[in-house]
Every structure is written in C-alpha cells, then in structure tokens.
Amino acid sequence: MVNKRRNLLVSLSAALMASLLVYGVYKLQLRQVELQQTVNVVVPKDFIPAGTMIDASLLAYRPVLAGSLMEGMFTDISLVAGQEAVVPLGTDEPVLAWKVDKFHLLPSRGQSTFQIPKEYILSLSNGIRAGDRVKLYLSGSEGESTRLFAQDITVASVKSSSNVEVDNPKSSNLMSRVNGDAEKMYASRREANGSIDQINLNLTEEEWLAIDRACKTKKTKLVIALSASSLTENSIDTTGRR
Q1: What is the pLDDT of residues 122-145, one digit of tens each?
Q2: How far apart are CA 146 and CA 140, in angstroms?
Q3: What long-range pairs does 17-23 form, CB within 8 A, spacing at least 24?
Q4: Do 194 and 169 meet the contact criterion of CB atoms below 8 Å apart?
Q5: 101: which strand partners?
C-alpha cells in the first residue's frame, strides 16, 4: 500500500515537472516570437542638419524588431514634430530623445523674442546661457527693489560683443542640458568663449511692456539672475511637449 502511494506521488511529481517544462518551453517560444515582431519607430526621411526645426513632413516610420527597440526611441511622429535637432540626424536612423530638444529656444505661443536694451540692465549674471531660466528684478534709486515677474523667463540667446553665442565651444551647455549632465552644464559655464554683451528673452507682449515701462525712465533697471531651475530641471521629456 505504501509503495502504491509512493509510486503515485512520484508519478504526480513527474507529471507536474513535465507540465512545467512544457509551459516553460511555450513561454520561451512565445517570447522569441514577440521579439521577432516589428515595431514602427520614427526616422528622418532625409538627412536633417543640427539646429533644424523638425516638421512632421521630414519624418517617417521604419519597422524594427521589437527586441531592438531602445529606450528613447519614438513610436509617434507627433512627439518629435516641433522639436529641434540638437545633432545631425541621419536618414532612416531612429530618432532618439537626446538628439532632439523640446527647449528649442523659440518663443512659445503668445510670446516673442525681445533683445533687452543694454541701458535697461543694471546687473547680468555671467553664468547665463541660451535655454536657461532667469529671474528678473527691478532696482532703482526710488523705492525698494522688487521681483518683476513671479514666473521664471526663458533665455533665447546670449551673445558676445562679436555677436557670437556665448558658450563653451568644446562642450556646449545645450548639449549637456539635453544629456541631463548637470556637471558638464556647470563646467561649460566656467569656460565661455566671451562675456555677455546682449541677452534675448522670450516674453509675452505684456511682460515686455512691463519691462519697458519700468526701465525707460532710467530711474529703475533690471537685475537678471540665473534661476536654480536651469540646473535642476529635467531637460528631456519623451512626450516632446512643451
């Protein structure tokens, strides 16, 4: 009787092991089939130079094996359209998130880019670079100094006296921002190719008029300070939306 029970237990165990083995083989084969399936990723139709604003008409889909899908690839053209190519994009090469920048330095809807007159500026942080966020303050002989806007303002560009974008030519601040490398962003500000002579800000009409009203009498001037959010904000969002 004991032997029968033992044999029955052994038989049941063997059947269970066999079932698990069959199931494991089935899952492995299913996984292989899934990896061999294709996914459409976004690619440029033709070569796109760095600095180009990417329109949907410049893009297409290309199928790749599901197993080859990498983090940072796009599967929806609408998420890439409207961004700027930070580096050259090769024909039919999958667009990666770090190669495009949602902070493309153009004014957003309702904004324009304004060059701030030099006579309006009392103080300007030398560490400011294109794409940064800045805080604007008013300082004058009459009344207390005050912050002009509650929100930070986006810098469209900073130029030297020779009309060259102020940056580190060997390791640009913008590239470091796209890569999310705060250390290189910090280092790039210490090795600039010039001092800031001109600054352009993306402002709404109301914001520009507020600056002009406050400063045109020359009794009050702007203090433009680098916001900490410029170094701490995540630069890349795979949604590609502003």
Answers
A1: 999 888 988 888 999 999 877 788
A2: 9
A3: none
A4: no
A5: 84
Please give the DSSP secondary-structure letter assigned to residue 77. G
Strands 100-101 and 84-85: antiparallel
Residues 118-147 as b or e (16 or more Cβ within 10 Å = b): eebbbebbebbbbbbbbbbbbebeeeeeee
Six-digit token string for 242: 């502003």
CA torsion sign, 121 to 125 to 129 to 132? negative
CA distance linking residue 128 with residue 229, whole number of Å: 12
Question: What is the per-residue pLDDT across 183-221, written as a single tens digit (0 to 9) for each?
Answer: 777 777 777 778 899 999 999 999 999 999 999 988 999
Q: How many CB atoms lie within 10 A of CB 101?
A: 21
Length of the chain, please? 242
| C-alpha distance from residue 181 to each of 70, 152, 173, 185 (Å) | 20, 21, 9, 6
What one-character DSSP code corresponds to residue 53?
Answer: B
Q: Per-residue confidence at 34, pLDDT binned at 50, 70, 90?
A: low
Look up residue 200 and give its amino acid. Answer: N
Query: One-letter amino acid identity for 184?
Result: K
Give the Cα separation of 81 and 56 in Å (integer): 5
Question: CB neighbours (10 Å) of residue 214?
Answer: 18
Pairing mode, strands 121-124 and 220-226: parallel
- In the chain, the percentage of residues whose pLDDT exceeds 70 is 82
